[in-house]
Design goal:
The protein has about 375 residues and is mainly beta. The chain has 3 helices and 24 strands.
Length: about 375
């Protein structure tokens, strides 16, 4: 047996063991000393500025990951107020003394942030509120405050924001104690409109409720001295269109711009009624890319249209009540054009726009030395199928 080898092995084992004991002792001694120290730098910051990507962008999406475990907002169902969680935090192990900070909105930073956010819009100033100051008490490290958004007002005044990302940069400043971590002193709040607002109406004001007139334009196309605002009036929740009694020659359009998407299937519907008694007159609804012009008859064949007139057996010479386009004809463009760009299904009324972008929905009444009966419309809408 090689005793020299065994002795050397035993010596190495003892050295390793002693080194291990020394290392453990040294670590314990170091830990005990450090625990008595105040380490770390006392800085105030907004945790939300770092929660998304560690503070690289300071972005704070709402909802955050759309996950219940990371929910960063609350909605008061009684008032429909959206409360977005924000806060302040003080780092370091120093004694926890009271402090306060000012809260402000950085409009310049908000505008800068919009450039990098698809479908970004600034959160309107008339729909939100923030505290002006946040205070943290002695023996506390942090405090929560809220960016409160009035969803009712947002839906009422900015209904198209349902497809937008609403952006607001919220910052803290002027600490009463300690200093700020400047890189995390601002949070870029990005609210996903589709998570909190109903899908926008393609035809806003199509219910003809009070205030819906702001969406519509009345235009004189070709009249013989009979044009006045009373030819199209929104009142008592409906739209009424008439030239009044007597033989007249008149042609007016009541219309608004709408946005449609290429390849998407849509369907128009509308409650329609007529008192009857019309002579040499017609009514039509048209969807087209061409805006009506003052002094020019409107060519409905440039788009898709539904019409009901005094020459039809079941037309507006008679009292009519029902749904358009079911009670009227439904056509697409010029019948001499073989390829229909709108891919209109004349049975169901479904259509698909040939291009993305702005179209017009146009309501026209016309009389040719005759009259148009009193026409009433309600619940005019275009729905995505």
């Amino acid at each position: 047996m090689n005793y020299k080898y065994l002795d050397m092995k035993n010596i190495l084992n003892k050295i390793t063991f002693l080194f291990f004991i020394f290392a453990v002792f040294a670590l314990n001694s170091c830990g005990t000393d450090d625990s008595q120290k105040e380490w770390g730098i006392a800085k105030i910051y907004m945790p939300q500025a770092a929660i998304f990507d560690g503070g690289i962008t300071n972005n704070y999406p709402v909802p955050l990951n759309n996950n219940p475990s990371t929910k960063n907002y609350d909605i008061d169902t009684a008032t429909n107020l959206l409360h977005i969680y924000l806060g302040v935090y003080r780092s370091g192990l120093q004694p926890l003394n009271a402090y306060s900070v000012k809260v402000y909105v950085d409009e310049a930073a908000t505008n800068d942030a919009l450039a990098g956010i698809s479908k970004g819009v600034a959160l309107p100033s008339d729909v939100y509120s923030l505290p002006s100051e946040v205070a943290v008490k002695d023996n506390e490290r942090q405090a929560t405050f809220y960016l409160t958004v009035d969803l009712n007002k947002l839906e009422e005044k900015y209904m198209d924001y349902a497809t937008k990302k609403m952006v607001l940069v919220v910052g803290i400043s002027d600490p009463s104690n300690y200093s700020l971590n400047e890189s995390l002193s601002k949070t870029t709040v990005i609210i996903d409109g589709s998570s909190f607002l109903p899908a926008p109406k393609i035809v806003p004001g199509g219910d003809f409720s009070a205030g819906s007139e702001v969406y519509w334009t009345l235009r004189n196309l070709n009249n013989s001295g009979v044009f006045n605002p009373s030819v199209a009036v929104i009142q008592n929740g409906v739209l009424t269109m008439t030239f009044g009694a007597g033989p007249v020659s008149g042609n007016i359009a009541f219309y608004q711009p709408i946005n449609l998407t290429k390849g998407t299937k849509y369907k128009l519907s509308c409650d329609f009624s007529s008192t009857g008694g019309a002579k040499d007159g017609k009514f039509f609804i048209c969807i087209s890319t061409i805006e009506p012009q003052t002094g020019q008859d409107y060519d409905m064949t440039v788009g898709i249209f539904t019409t009901i007139d005094s020459w039809q057996p079941a037309g507006i010479t008679n009292a009519v009540s029902g749904k358009l386009p079911q009670i009227g004809t439904w056509q697409s463009g010029d019948p001499n054009i073989p390829n229909d760009p709108y891919k209109l299904d004349k049975t169901t009324g479904q259509f698909s726009p040939p291009t993305d972008g702005q179209y017009y929905i146009i309501l026209v009444i016309a009389a040719y030395n005759g009259n148009v009966s009193t026409i009433t419309l309600d619940n005019l809408k275009i729905e995505e199928i």
